[in-house]
Amino acid sequence: SLGQNPTEAELQDTINEVDADGNGTIDFPEFLNLMARKMKDTDSEEELKEAFRVFDKDQNGFISAAELRHVMTNLGEKLTDEEVDEMIREADVDGDGQINYEEFVK
Questions:
Q1: Residue 48 backbone dihedrals phi, psi, to 5 degrees
Q2: How far is CA 61 from the centre of its chain?
Q3: DSSP codes, 27-76
Q4: Other Cβ atoms closer than 10 A to 103
Q5: Could you give all domains of the chain from N- to C-terminal order, each with its CATH number?
Q6: What is the pLDDT of residues 12-70, one digit of tens each?
Q7: Which residues pair with 99 in a beta bridge?
Q8: Residue 40 φ then ψ, to 5°
């Protein structure tokens, strides 16, 4: 949990706010945009770390493709292996195939 408990209306407002292509769902780039905005609003290092921990299931300091797929599936995003790999590539600055905390917060 990210410490949020929005109402249905607030959730719909948030979706409408970040749903750039207007398809009624939030895809990963839109999700990243939302998270970036929320983090700017709170600007809390601890909340960023908490969000990272949500993805980093084995707590090894990295988000793997499998961990990313798991969380996104739980959020209702059914992603192909190619989509997960593309998301990792987009965020993986050092090219090691996983996302560390510094890459996550960029």
A1: -60, -45
A2: 16
A3: -HHHHHHHHHHHHHHH--HHHHHHHHHHH-TT-SSEE-HHHHHHHHHHTT
A4: 17
A5: 7-37 (1.10.238.10), 44-105 (1.10.238.10)
A6: 887 788 788 888 777 777 788 777 777 666 557 777 888 889 889 999 999 998 898 88
A7: 63
A8: -65, -40
